[in-house]
Every structure is written in C-alpha cells, then in structure tokens.
C-alpha cells in the first residue's frame, strides 16, 4: 500500500530547505521502490497571507490523512504584530495538538567532521550523542487558564498555567524509557521539583515507571543544573526526558553543542506513530531567500521520517550516510563553515547529498 507524505514548507528559509529534502525523498523513493505519494499545503505565515489563518482546515485535514508530515519552519517579523491566536506559531502548535503529537524526539549528535564547529572544546563534545525526549502537547504551552487580565487596581497581569496530568507524564515517560532501552540505558528526567508542584508529580511518576524498566538507570536533575551540565559535561547524558517548555530551551542548547542548530532533525510522534518531522531550527527570516541556509537538518528529518513513520530503515540509513559523505567531502554551508572547507549554497548542499545517494 502506498504511503503519503505531506510537505509543509512554511515560512522564511522553510521553502528553500524543504525543496532540497523533497528532492532527496524523491530520489530514495525511486531507488528503494517505496511507493511514496507527495502532497503539499500551507501553514504559518504563508497560510495567513493566503487565507488569514495559520492552520487552514484544508491543511489540517491533509495532515490528518497523511502517514507522515515534513515541515520546514514557521514565523517571521512580518506576522509578529498579530494577536496570539493568529500568529504563525499557532499553525505549528495546532498541528501538534490536533494530531496529538505528544512525543518530540530531538537527537543531538556531533558529526566528527564538525567537532571544530562547536563553541565547546572538541574533547568536551567529541562523540556526543544525546536524545532529548520533550513532551509536546501539554505543560505551560497549552495549560488553561491563560491570557492577560486587568487587576482591580487597573494594572494588567499576564498569566499561564503549568499543568500535567499523571497520564500525560506516564505516556511521555514510557517513550523515554523505551528510547533509553534502545540506547545506553540511562535516562535523566529534568524538572524543577524544588519549586513547582507539577514537577513533583512528574518526578513521582517517573520513579514509579522506573520499576517497569529495571534495565534503565533513572536519575533526576533540576532544569537549571541541567542547563549548566549540558555545557559543562554533556557526554554524561544519554536520554533526557522533560516537559514542553524546558525541552524547548534545553534542545536549543543541546543543538549548539553539535556546532550548528542547522544540523539537527526532530520527530514528533503520536500514539499511532504518525509523525511530523521538522528541523529543530526556526524560520531564520534574516537569511531567508539568500540560498545560504543549511538544508541538512531537514534532510536528516526526512531520514527520521522514513525510519519512524514509513518503515523504510534502509532508505533512512542511505540518507544519513550520504550526509556524512558530503561532510567528508568538506562541503559546508555558512553556519558550519570553517577554514579549509568548501562553502556551498543551500542548493549545492542538496545536490551533493543527491549525488552521494
Ligand atoms: C520549537 C519552536 C516552537 C516551540 C515555536 C516555533 C512555537 O521553538 O519547535 O522548538 O516553541 O515549540
Ligand atoms: Mg524551540
């Protein structure tokens, strides 16, 4: 049976990087006889410009029907002044919540070829391989009530609510324990249990789950310490599990350990393993349209998509090997450029991956 892939280029550099990933997907589709069918739709600012809303009904319905979704990025200064409910980011958040994509996997792997691109010393980051499991449809991002209200004294007050139910904690916990079982069997749960009750419960549920995974060594860390440890001694981590907002922050930090956020893919999965795949970086409006963005995070996201949602492990590995090969060839986009290498454009990087395939 043929499987369907929905492409959502989005805004900023999104269309440029998704175009390269699309070529790579067409290539492996042919080479490995995957029988993938492709469609595309608008999301974020591009959708706002077209129809006034960041997540049109048509996009949502195509997304529901797809086996997997590849998203570029959303957002940009053009739409920053819009009210919260109409901002491009709501398109992304709406897809996550409507498809119940609660499990966000963000691997931070250092390619040996890029050790010198990291701002940390090579010995601190060489061999780095961390998996951040971020809860993606709950926590303070979605908690109610939220808003800006006027107090009796006339002053305005902004407020959000940080909530997690036991079942939400348990299901993301299971994903993380299972990921750890497939890796080095170490799981660090990150919370703020010295201050926030919601994360006291989080810690309790993780402890409880640990009994079902005796082969995994569970530890806990406060988020402030985790932020510090990630730059002090990042190789102490194998799998990290944390809530939506802490995961947002720590995954950007972990990304930079690897030299460039332009290299990091991600997967957002629901209970049926339907998934949305996107680079960890944003829409980078400052460099959009210049042809200098790094398409590798998106190309690697396509590889994750083949692995987790399309059962095409061989094709996934072929893409990952091709990326490694172009790095070996010394090709670098601006964000990972260092002396002695060849600077290439977004398009040239995409073509090089195709050639390596
Ligand atoms: C991410 C992004 C999003 C988030 C934004 C664009 C809403 O930063 O995927 O990490 O905060 O989750
Ligand atoms: Mg983020």
UniProtKB/TrEMBL annotation:
Protein known as: 3-isopropylmalate dehydrogenase
Cofactor(s) needed by this chain: Mg(2+); Mn(2+)
The protein's role, per its UniProt record: Catalyzes the oxidation of 3-carboxy-2-hydroxy-4-methylpentanoate (3-isopropylmalate) to 3-carboxy-4-methyl-2-oxopentanoate. The product decarboxylates to 4-methyl-2 oxopentanoate.
Recorded superkingdom: Bacteria
Source organism of the structure: Marinobacter zhejiangensis
Cofactor info, note text: Binds 1 Mg(2+) or Mn(2+) ion per subunit.
Binding site for Mg(2+): 224, 248, 252
Binding site for NAD(+): 76-89, 282-294
Assigned keywords, A-Z: Amino-acid biosynthesis, Branched-chain amino acid biosynthesis, Cytoplasm, Leucine biosynthesis, Magnesium, Manganese, Metal-binding, NAD, Oxidoreductase
Localization of this protein: Cytoplasm
């Amino acid at each position: 049976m043929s499987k369907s892939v929905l492409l959502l280029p989005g805004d900023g550099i999104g269309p440029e990087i998704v175009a390269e990933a699309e070529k790579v997907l067409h290539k492996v589709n042919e080479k490995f006889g995957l029988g993938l069918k492709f469609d595309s739709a608008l999301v974020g600012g591009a959708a706002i410009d077209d129809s006034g809303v960041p997540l049109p009904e048509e996009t949502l319905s195509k997304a529901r029907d797809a086996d997997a979704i590849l998203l570029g990025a959303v957002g940009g200064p053009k739409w920053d002044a819009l009210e919260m409910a109409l901002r491009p980011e709501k398109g992304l958040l709406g897809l996550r919540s409507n498809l119940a994509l609660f499990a966000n996997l963000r691997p931070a792997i250092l390619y040996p070829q890029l050790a010198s691109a990291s701002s940390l010393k090579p010995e601190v980051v060489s061999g780095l391989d961390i998996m951040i499991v971020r809860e993606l449809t709950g926590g303070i991002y979605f908690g109610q009530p939220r808003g800006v209200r006027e107090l009796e004294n006339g002053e305005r007050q902004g407020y959000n609510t940080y909530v997690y139910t036991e079942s939400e904690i348990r299901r993301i916990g299971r994903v993380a324990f299972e990921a750890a079982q497939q890796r080095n069997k170490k799981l660090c749960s990150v919370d703020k249990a010295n201050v926030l009750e919601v994360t006291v419960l989080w810690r309790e549920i993780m402890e409880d789950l640990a009994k079902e995974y005796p082969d995994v060594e569970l530890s806990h860390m406060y988020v402030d310490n985790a932020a510090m440890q990630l730059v002090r001694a990042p190789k102490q981590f194998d799998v990290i599990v944390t809530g939506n907002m802490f995961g947002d922050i720590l995954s950007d930090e972990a990304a930079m350990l690897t030299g460039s956020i332009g290299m990091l893919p991600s997967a957002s999965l629901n209970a049926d393993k339907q998934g949305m795949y996107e680079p960890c970086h944003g829409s980078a409006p400052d460099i959009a349209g210049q042809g200098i963005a790094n398409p590798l995070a998106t190309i690697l996201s396509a590889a994750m998509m083949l692995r987790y949602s399309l059962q095409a492990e061989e094709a996934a590995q072929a893409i990952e090997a091709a990326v490694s090969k172009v790095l070996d060839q010394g090709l670098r986009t601006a964000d990972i450029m260092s002396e002695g290498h060849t600077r290439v454009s977004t398009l040239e990087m995409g073509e090089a991956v195709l050639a390596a395939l």
